[in-house]
Amino acid sequence: MIRKILMCGNEACGEGAILAGCKFYAGYPITPQNELTAYLAKRMNETNGIFIQAESELAAINMVFGAAAAGVRAMTSSSSPGISLKQEGISYMVGCELPCVIVNMQRGGPGLGNIATSQADYFQAVKGGGHGDYNLIVLAPASAQELLEYTYLAFDMADKYRNPVFILGDGLLGQMMEPISINFKNPPANIPKPWALTGCKGRKPNIIRSLLLGDGALEEHNKHLQEKFGRMKASEVRAETYHINDSDTVVVAYGSAARLAKSAMLKARAKGLKVGLIRPITLWPFPEKLIEDVASRAKRFLVVEMSAGQMVQDVRLAVNGKAKVDFYGRMGGGIPTDEDILERIEASV
User: φ and ψ at 179, to 5 degrees?
Assistant: First the structure.
């Protein structure tokens, strides 16, 4: 039976975690993701899970480390500066191959900034904000419905690869209320975790660590991790496209900005302009092959972000000089309108 209910994006994200079988959440309040923490405070109690409001963001990520090491589906969330505080713990979890889900509802920065929406944490998410050579799968929902669905998916991905998975939202998505459908036919994946620390009676003890001091041991571990990241790149690229086969200009945007860009693209086509749209859903792995292929026939790309320009660098790398790449961005909580984007589309047609 399909249930359709009105939820803000933060609540939808929380419900996606509950449906995926999340049994441990540790977080710390920060706007604009507080509704997610409040929602899970209630729902975890109703579903026999554990909710902890930690004393800090550092404590929260390390509590998630412990729960994940015990084999429990675990999650934390925050917003921009709070995510910065979690970076050391995230690096440790990748090094220890521990699955978890981390949610960032971005706010304006740098520093404390403001509580308005932003997309200025792209580099931190996709380039690895912590130390060492590592990657996270980074999912970029564009609606409350997708926050529900991709949070659900993120737990399966995390267990599949034994790696943290990142949900990169923003303040607009987290606060906006939309009707969502709850219709999951498939139960959460039940992936065995023989590596988990569940007590060693009757078996050899498991050891989870990232400190590898033996000669060549850390390099071999890094080679293993890079092979795993390669499998992610080969299998997990996701993107949504519109009218890319006949377009001279292709707009590239993700998250909230993509919704505005889609409206601008449709207005442009109504005027007879050959305009398409690529919406990356996985920011890592990035849909570079898709963009490279489109660059062989399109004349121009317009990248739209609520930042000073971060994803635009990955687009330029994928285009590799085959087409012109322009950028339009707003910063510090500024939100572009579809008319603003349309004006930039028309400027170089």
Answer: -75, 135
Cα–Cα distance, 62 to 14 (Å, whole number): 20
List, in order, residues 6 or more apart from 299 with CB less than 8 Å away: 248, 249, 323, 324
User: Rounded to an integer, what distance in angstroms lies between the CA atom of residue 290 and that of residue 315?
Assistant: 10
* DSSP conformation class of 332: T
Give percent above pLDDT 70 in the chain. Answer: 99
Can you read off the two tokens belonging to residue 301? 């790309």
Reported as a single tens digit per residue, the pLDDT across 95-125 is 999 999 999 999 999 999 999 999 999 999 9
Of 140, 245, 270, give the one whose Cα is nearest residue 262. Answer: 270
27 and 60 Cβ atoms separated by less than 8 Å = yes
Burial label for 133, CB within 10 Å (0-12, 13-18, 19+), is exposed
Q: What does the DSSP assignment read for 106-152?
A: EBS-STT--SSB--TTHHHHHTTSSSSS---EEE---SHHHHHHHHH
- Please name the residue that has the structure tokens 């687009």: 315
Q: Order of strands, edge to edge, in the sheet holding 24-27?
A: 50-53, 24-27, 74-78, 101-106, 165-170, 137-139, 282-284
CB half-sphere exposure, 246, CA atoms < 13 A? 5
pTM over 0.90: yes
Closest C-alpha among 159, 99, 134 to residue 222: 134
Q: With the CA atoms of 267, 271, 274 and 280 taken in that order, what torsion angle do they form, in degrees rounded to the nearest 10?
A: 0
Who contacts 341 (Cβ-Cβ below 8 Å, separation ≥6)? Answer: 251, 260, 261, 263, 264, 302, 304, 328
Dig out the tokens for 320 from the structure: 């590799």
Q: Which alpha helices (H) appear in the chain, and where do they start and end?
A: 9-19, 34-46, 57-69, 81-85, 87-95, 122-126, 144-161, 171-175, 217-235, 255-270, 288-295, 311-319, 338-347
> Residue 267 CA to chain centroid, in angstroms?
28
